[in-house]
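It is worth pausing here to work through a concrete case rather than discussing structure prediction in the abstract. The textbook approach is simple: state the sequence, then state the predicted structure, then interpret. We follow exactly that order.
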Amino acid sequence: MIMSTLAIIACFAPLFFITGMMGPYMAPMAANVPITVVFSTFCALTIVPWLSYLLLKNAKAVQSPATETAGQRIGIIERVYRAVVGPFLASRTKRLLMGGAVIALLLMSMSLALFRLVPLKMLPFDNKNEFQLLIDMPEGTTLETTDAIVRAFEDYLYSVPEITSLVSHVGHASPIDFNGLVRHYYLRQGGHLADIRINLAEKNRRSQQSHAIVLRLRKGLEKIAAAHGADLKIVEVPPGPPVLSTVVAEIYGGLDDSYGKMIDGARHVKAVMAREPFVTDIDDSAEAARMKVDFILDKEKAALHGVSTEAVVKSLRMALHGGSPATVHLPGERSPLMIKTILPREKRSGVVALSQLPIKTAAGEMIPLAELVEIDTVPESQPIYHKNLERVVYVTAEMAGRPPGEAILDMMQRLKKTPAPAGIRVNWAGEGEWKITLRVFRDMGIAFAAALVLIYILLVVQTDSFFMPGLIMMAIPLTLIGAMPGFWLLNVVAGTPVGGFDNPVFFTATGMIGMIALGGIVIRNSLILIEFIQDAIKRGEPFKEAILQSGAIRMRPILLTATTTALGAWPITLDPVFSGLAWTLIFGLFASTLFTLLVIPVTYYALYAKKH
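Step two, the predicted structure:
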């Protein structure tokens, strides 16, 4: 028991060293699980025996029909176990066939992810009570036009029974949250931009999870956006650390390449994304090409009229944006109100109207602005984004019913066939979910390897052998035979499409945590089973009989322990985020337990039969 406790601690301790934004999410588990199993072991070794003594000290050993029935059950279990395991001990050919079958099952299980039958993702979608729509009209669209289009979206959304309320923000950003902070939504300002916050009914009042509702509504919302020429983004609250977008391609160029060439490269990547199935909400960081009006002051004329550059700038600013030169106190108001002065719209819309703006000269006369300036129209320069001192253009997209990793790998292959312009580099592991996915699975893979090394060291100390720990640890890879086919089965049974989009069950980082946890759990069964076999041999039992008898005796406790662990994990399957951990434990325990009772004794017999 102490060794199994140390094995579980060794499995979870490396999670402390997960880096990046997922580190704070993993660290509590790395602390809480070891503390829990330590107290559990302490109670099992002290409090449980003491309570058992108090409760059973006056009990009398009486042979009852129930005891006889239990003995008969043990006899039945032993006969079944001998019938299953005995033939493999008696035949070398059957042992080789069993070994080949186990290896084939392992390879098949690992190939399920390789052939995309088990979709991989960092974290699954959570079941939240809200989501968000971002509407981008062509630059220059008036606020009134954008508002009319927002009302078309509102009419559609109000017809959805799961939606309880919504709030629209036209021309400015909605209140900031963590996701909006990372994605820079708080910077959205302008008459062509809108933001709709949608609230869903409580989870117990709707049958679908929030992600399924979004998938169901997506085609209807995209149809409205296409009818009005709008770019639509449907934003869900992320279950973990937010990123700039689910799919992000960073476009870099050489030192001699213009930013316009990098934007051309970004357009090429957008075209690749548009051809990829289920890649949606495609956008980039470049702004639309537009012209700006320059008022070039004729300093000689301005000096003759006694007008300074500052006076011209202030007059234009006041005309276009207004100003607050004073305050006013109204009856019933506690604080003074600002007075805003601004020209009427018709007198500040267009170059002709602004050129007639009156400017006061030093002599007190009013002259039109056109007498002091030359008006020129020039192209507006693009804002240049930088990352790590390099110029960059971002291309972003979301996924609808498909793992982002699969789409990125396919798009990388497409780019090899139709490359971007010469000198343009595309980085897919920059600011999107793919970057965090690679880092998290890398760190968790290293953590799993470290856990295996620690378990091996503990078993070497326990068994005083360098070979026996390898035999005991054979149960760990056997968990894959249950976990990966289990997720494939979940997708066959529960991965039903919604709204024309797949809604798969992902194997996620929480599922990887389950794999790490299984490493400590299944070691206990193998360790205790081999100790039973060795104790039976020390008592003088024949080698083959010791294996069969020990396996039969340990079969019932092993099955009961695995069942109780699976039942304990069952309620976690109801949680959208941590269900992957629970399903990994359930499927992994099922396969590992059955194969441990078969593979470990047969392998032990094959290795030590000649010695005994």
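Step three, interpretation. The CA atoms of residues 264 and 421 lie 8 Å apart. The chain has a mean pLDDT of 87.
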